[in-house]
Write a structure and sequence with these properties.
The chain is of the alpha/beta class. The chain is 26% helix and 29% strand.
Length: 244
């Protein structure tokens, strides 16, 4: 059963390091599955495009998803798509989870392979679109990225399923907050929805309907232009049940 509405979960989290193994899915990743309302074994497709489809990252995600009881696949685009029909494969999923890395490179590769309209159709069909960092920014109009180098810079041509900008790692990387403020203030970016590490934003259609977290003492933020200045509003997240 697909999600009741087109649904996106945009996060600055979703993983933790377990006592055994390399990677485990944290509460935000599990929440993406809950939003999808699967009727059988949940099906997750991991897109590691932003890190060049590194096979060790694919293996880590597959192991983590399998340990959680999910049926996981990896959609690779390097050196070529690893499935015959990318759209058919994505439409069969409950959740598409996009990993972090270079959002600029991710967008370029997705567009070269025609994924932009495919992901929109999957979203409209009720496949939950989710991800972390670059896998969060990609669903918005744009945001702030280190894709071009160590100095943060704007990206303004993301997929635009959501009519906002996005700021990730808002509390842990000190350069992101002031740059978001400046770019919203000068009109380079629209109103920005930002997440501290461990926070996720849930959208139905293009409406923000929930703010959730997998850790304590973290927040989401809305940064908007108001008159000649910028206003920042703090949003309190709902703490998700812990899987640990």
């Amino acid at each position: 059963m697909p999600a009741e509405h087109p649904t996106i979960l945009a996060t600055s989290g979703g993983y933790f390091i377990p006592a055994r193994g390399d990677l485990a899915l944290n509460d935000l990743a599990h929440h993406a599955v809950e939003l999808a309302r699967p009727t059988g074994q949940p099906r997750l497709c991991h897109l590691g495009t932003a890190n060049g489809d590194q096979r060790f990252r694919n293996a880590m995600f597959g192991e983590a998803a399998g340990a959680a009881g999910y049926a996981a696949t990896n959609l690779n685009l390097f050196p070529m798509p690893n499935v015959d029909d990318v759209e058919e494969h994505l439409l069969e999923q409950d959740v598409v989870w996009v990993n972090g890395g270079s959002v600029v490179n991710l967008l370029a590769v997705w567009r070269a392979h025609g994924l932009e309209p495919v992901l929109r159709r999957a979203w409209e069909a009720g496949v939950v679109l989710a991800g972390v960092s670059a896998g969060s920014i990609c669903w918005y109009q744009g945001g702030v990225t280190d894709s071009f180098g160590p100095d943060l810079a704007p990206v303004t041509d993301a997929l635009g399923l959501l009519p906002f900008a996005n700021g990730v790692h808002y509390d842990s990387e000190p350069g992101r907050r002031p740059l978001i403020h400046r770019l919203v203030g000068d009109g380079t970016l629209p109103t920005a929805h930002c997440t501290d590490d461990g926070v996720g934003l849930v959208y139905q259609g293009q409406q923000l309907v929930d703010v959730v977290s997998e850790t304590d003492d973290v927040h989401a933020w809305v940064v908007r232009r108001e008159g000649d200045g910028v206003v920042e509003e703090r949003l309190e997240p709902r703490r998700l049940p812990s899987v640990r």
